[in-house]
Amino acid sequence: MKTFRFTSHLIVGLTFFMFLPVLQAQSKENADIPWGAKVSGLQVRIRECPKSERKEGKALMIFEVCNTSDRPVDFCWWQSPLERTWTANQFKITGTQEKIDYLGMMVKRNPPNKKNGDYTTLNPGWMLSVTFDLKEVYGLRTGSNYSVRYAGTSLGLPPSNSIDIEFE
Q1: In degrees rounded to 5, what are phi and psi of residue 160?
Q2: Whole-angstrom distance, CA of residue 88 vs CA of residue 78
Q3: If DSSP states are collapsed to H, E and C, what string results for 41-89?
Q4: N or C terminus: fewer CB in 10 A for the chain?
């Protein structure tokens, strides 16, 4: 039994060090993209998908939530791209020539409840990431420039950084 446990730990450790350069490369690649404000140890960042992953007619973005504290943090994932459906006007988008309207649904709910799974626990140093299409519910026009920022929620997620994008 002791040999099995030692072997398991050795395999996990070696696997970690084999992939460490990949993890470091990913963090260096996005190091120049700033994070938003830190609230309760959580920070939110949005960024465009790499050009190799973009699809015509879509405004693909990446939404990241990181726990920078030294303890686990619980937060409600409602009204964020982590929800995987649009239930509120989550982003502040300004264009060079026109007002950008939110075209999605607005959902009214009872307060979130930990017992119902409305909260997620993010351990120290962990990050959640999801790709989403901003054009699904915002009236973005091809060939226009926009400034985009996640507004944050009163449910635990802070606002993100602001980025400039050109919707092609």
Answers
A1: -95, -175
A2: 9
A3: CEEEEEEECCHHHCCCCCCEEEEEEEECCCCCEEEECCCCHHHCCCCCC
A4: N
Question: Taking the CB of residue 162, how many other CB atoms lie within 10 A of it?
Answer: 14
Q: Which residue has the tokens 């409600």?
A: 76
Dist CA 27 CA 29 (whole Å): 5
CA distances from 84 to 2, 37, 148 (A): 44, 23, 19
The rounded distance, in Å, linking the Cα atoms of 161 and 147 is: 10
Phi, psi (5° rounding) for residue 111?
Answer: -55, 150
Domain ranges, ordered by start, for the chain: 1-32, 34-167
- The predicted-structure confidence for 102-138, as pLDDT tens digits, reads as follows 999 999 999 999 999 999 999 999 999 999 999 999 9
In this prediction the pTM is 0.76
Fold of 34-167: Immunoglobulin-like (2.60.40)
